[in-house]
């Protein structure tokens, strides 16, 4: 999602762009790029070969594994890509003389303590249960690989819940269908916070850190973390769906999976202060309210 938005912006800024793809069948969807390299990031030998051949100054790592699979399978595949795939990519980048590696991370992995909006010093929830714990440990592995390699400048961009064209919140997207089908409830007294990131703002952050900012982890989120009880009814109204149903906590635990209950009741939001100070980044969509309205054709042109 972010990569497809980012590629034309890189060209507009005058960068020479080589797209790394696993298969060539979708190359025509990339738009104008200067070159295409074919490799699976899980294959260290081939990745090293293509990076050596391309000789980039900066590598941007935006690989995830959610395309065409359910949430659990997507998390498991993404965990592998973030742990092993990132290790392969960073090793190959260092060998090829790459100066900086910018990688996609997530702001939803923080340990959910208190009611505060969290910054980058907050701990990751590495001992979370089930597949979510696996996913968070993969985030930790990605960032450790990225930020401890002495031969590169590592930048981990912790995106919030991504929305925009081509995402689950867009018309025909998974979240859009679920909310219209009353499949996403409110939980009484649930205070889960969501930090949103428009795909345009995620791409803009990548552009800003290609040259600027000290190596490290940065939250890339909008200015308005929102409780589920605030953004979900607003989104449902915007898409013409029914008002969300309401469940007690016990009902939710009986009817929903553990991760969904966590997200609706205790997930914490994040602050973008560090990135704003480091490189002057500002979200084009400071609030999910205007961003959703634009996505759904409700914002004045």
From TrEMBL:
Any one cellular-component term (Gene Ontology): cytoplasm
GO molecular function, one term: aldehyde dehydrogenase (NAD+) activity
Chain ranges of the NAD-dependent epimerase/dehydratase domain: 1-220
Record's signal peptide: none
Gene3D superfamilies cross-referenced by the UniProt entry: NAD(P)-binding Rossmann-like Domain
Protein name, entry field: Nucleoside-diphosphate-sugar epimerase
Origin species: Haloactinomyces albus
Taxonomic lineage: Bacteria, Bacillati, Actinomycetota, Actinomycetes, Actinopolysporales
């Amino acid at each position: 999602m972010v990569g497809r938005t980012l590629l034309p912006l890189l060209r507009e800024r005058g960068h020479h762009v080589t797209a790394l793809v696993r298969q060539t069948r979708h190359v025509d969807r990339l738009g104008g790029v200067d070159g295409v390299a074919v490799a699976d990031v899980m294959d260290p030998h081939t990745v090293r070969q293509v990076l050596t051949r391309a000789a980039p100054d900066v590598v941007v790592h935006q690989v995830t594994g959610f395309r065409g699979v359910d949430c659990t399978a997507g998390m498991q595949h993404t965990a592998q890509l973030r742990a092993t795939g990132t290790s392969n990519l960073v090793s190959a980048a260092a060998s090829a003389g790459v100066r900086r590696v910018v990688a996609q991370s997530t702001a939803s992995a923080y340990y959910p303590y208190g009611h505060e909006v969290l910054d980058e010093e907050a701990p990751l929830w590495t001992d979370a249960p089930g597949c979510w714990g696996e996913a968070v440990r993969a985030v930790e592995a990605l960032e450790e690989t990225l930020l401890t390699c002495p031969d590169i400048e590592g930048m981990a961009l912790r995106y919030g819940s991504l929305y925009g064209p081509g995402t689950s919140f867009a018309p025909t997207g998974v979240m859009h269908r679920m909310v219209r089908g009353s499949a996403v409830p409110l939980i009484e007294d649930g205070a889960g916070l969501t930090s949103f990131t428009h795909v345009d703002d995620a791409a803009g952050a990548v552009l800003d850190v290609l040259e600027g900012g000290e190596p490290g982890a940065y939250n890339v989120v909008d200015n308005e973390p929102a409780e589920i009880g605030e953004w979900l009814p607003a989104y449902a109204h915007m898409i013409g769906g029914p008002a969300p149903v309401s469940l007690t906590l016990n009902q939710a635990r009986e009817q929903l999976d553990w991760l969904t209950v966590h997200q609706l009741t205790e997930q914490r939001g994040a602050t973008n202060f560090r990135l704003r100070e480091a490189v002057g980044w500002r979200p084009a969509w400071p609030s999910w309210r205007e961003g959703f309205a634009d996505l759904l054709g409700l914002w004045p042109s």
